[in-house]
Amino acid sequence: MNRKPTLAVVGATGAVGAVMLQLLSQHADVWGEIRLLASPRSAGRKLAVRGEETEVLALDEDLLEGVDVVLLLAPEDVAARWAPIAAAEGAVVVDTSAAFRADPDVPLVVPEINPHAVRVRPRGIVASPGCSTLALIVAVGALHAEFGVAELVVTAQQAASVAGQAGVTALREQLSLVAGTELGHRPGDVRRAVGDDTGPFPGPVALNVLPWSGTPTEDGWSSEELRIREETRKILDLPGLPVAATCVRVPVVTAHSVSVHARFERPVTVGRAHEILATSPGVVLYDDPAAGGFPTPADVVGTDPTWVGRVRRSMDDERALEFFVCADNLRKGAALNALQIAEAVRPEIGTG
Amino acid sequence: MNRKPTLAVVGATGAVGAVMLQLLSQHADVWGEIRLLASPRSAGRKLAVRGEETEVLALDEDLLEGVDVVLLLAPEDVAARWAPIAAAEGAVVVDTSAAFRADPDVPLVVPEINPHAVRVRPRGIVASPGCSTLALIVAVGALHAEFGVAELVVTAQQAASVAGQAGVTALREQLSLVAGTELGHRPGDVRRAVGDDTGPFPGPVALNVLPWSGTPTEDGWSSEELRIREETRKILDLPGLPVAATCVRVPVVTAHSVSVHARFERPVTVGRAHEILATSPGVVLYDDPAAGGFPTPADVVGTDPTWVGRVRRSMDDERALEFFVCADNLRKGAALNALQIAEAVRPEIGTG
Q1: Which residue of A33, A65, A324, B18 pairs with A310 in a disulfide if CB–CB is 3.0 to 4.6 A?
Q2: How do beta strands B46-49 and B52-55 pair?
Q3: Residue B350: pLDDT band by 50, 70, 90 thresholds?
């Protein structure tokens, strides 16, 4: 076929969907029809994509007919139900939820790191990693290619939009309650001012750090923390890699930041790490702290790359590096990576 | 002598000084005269201590005469100058600055961990560690006593009051500028709204995470990060302990939080770690995440202990634990630890 492939965006009205429509309008126009789908609750809205107002339709099996690629930007339960349906209709499904990431028959793809993996998809589904994994994996993968990663210890400071628009709304409402006050000096005064309704967060996030993200799993780990471990292992094809992750939530709107301790198989130098990071696709090195040069979430939000700064070699181990990465959790952490996967799949279809 | 010893508080008008006066009013009344001293700029103010309005006097050599213990809550340069003067006058000096912490003739004391160290002070000076070290050391020291710590990787999320009242003021002003806005979605929009005057911070701290604290040192490390390493080694008397620290600043008023990865010499279990932490002086264990039970800075601010939660054993190493600690950087992180040192020194003087 020589026609341009048809794309469906499921979850077009959410926080990640809004970024996806922006990206589709900015990237090379390689798609034919773009169908915008969402839950019946959101159907009927009109959204701009490629400069055209497009009506959002209620997700339905009929509407997946003839679709070549589905970008599934939906919660895990919706994805678990609809990905197999769309795949059965013949579409390649790119799923941003956690539903299929651990499935051995579903590749987990970061195009800068393991682009080849996209070709083998027995279930017709390709999974995109979680936003915290995506915040660090492009930089870690680039260094791994040269030094061989042997262990990771990371602390991910997640932004409020990790919980979608509801997270951003909760943060903004809480900020309005605490700004202009003297709160934050007495035990629990922020919690009392914010009240019991903390939205999608397990406590107040304004003027606070919440050391919890996701759902409880075995032995005290949160689901988000274990996912960073499992996803990193799968993407790097290192099933035995030791990974210890801590996820906390901070009062930032969008863009995750991660402090990374990486031990490698071979000795490292800051100079060589700088060279690698400065020349790796998808990475921007910004590392001049004496002159105020380091990435921060509020500075990199809305940009595509993974930003890396604060690179230092361990004082105690010539094989270990510390560094600090920031990436927009809605862009590289969700919409952008999924679209990159779709764009990597497209040549198989459009020129088939 | 049977008289109660005379105490001088230098830096009584600062953020740590305010907490010190509170603590002096709450703790057992073991002191005779309490002299409040500060820079000439702050002299003349009246502050309440033990229920009495007390005039703040300008720091002067004459005023150190007859003082038994000096609590030095001053910047590093002031401490470097005045600590030897006060010691020469015969006082025991408890210094909260970094000026003498690395001096082999100055003990670095955390009363829960190395109380014996306070007895040997060739220069008449006892140093109190920095606030980030103090946030984690009580918990780490308790676990070390049983398991033997072999390596630490930590990320310290520092509160704005790490930069004193100026830091809190800057955070509050920035919050007023961003609350009620849609800022935080576009690159640099928070930075532009806040403007170039970011107070004591190297960038906007509202809606942000700043991966920098202190001054530049060799090889990209910040002074605060290296201090955590050096102070932890000295307090635990483990000069070869590998410690990799990252310090970031977050939009929290007061109370630091630290994610800790600790590898030990012997195998650990969460159960035994819980038992140790639940029974260690100065530590509160709060670890029931499935029920929302974990410490956060906004909940523990204004309290004395080190709070510990999120204890989990590494999935990859039976000798490693992750945990999350919170402590008030003005209390245990500064004023309280210094006062505990002074109270440990007092019996030598008051009953001499």
Answers
A1: A324
A2: antiparallel
A3: low
A247 has catalytic annotation: no
Set of chain B residues whose Cβ sits within 8 Å of the Cβ of A167: none
H-assigned helices in B102-214:
131-147, 164-178, 189-194
E strand or H helix at B84: helix B76-88
Q: Are residues A222 and A170 in the same domain?
A: yes
Flag if B207 and A252 touch (Cβ within 8 Å).
yes
First to last CA, chain B: 5
**What confidence tier does A2 reach under pLDDT thresholds 50, 70, 90?**
low
ipTM of the complex model: 0.96
B278 to B281, B287, B305, B321, B333: CA distances (angstroms): 9, 10, 12, 16, 20
| Judgement on whether residues B93 and B182 belong to the same structural domain of the protein | no
User: Is residue B283 included in any domain, yes or no?
Assistant: yes
Residues A138, A286 share a domain: yes
Answer yes or no: do A113 and A175 share one domain. Answer: no
| Yes or no, beta carbons of B191 and A298 under 8 Å apart | yes
In a domain, A1, yes or no: no
Whose tokens are 């799993």? That residue is A217
Residue B2 belongs to a domain: no
Same domain, A118 and A143: no
State the alpha helices, DSSP H only, in B196-265: 223-236
Would you say residue B159 lies in a domain? yes
Q: Residue B246 belongs to what domain range?
A: 133-328
Which regions of B198-338 does DSSP assign to beta strands (E)?
A: 243-249, 256-264, 283-285, 306-313, 320-327
Report whether B76 contacts B69 (CB < 8 A): no
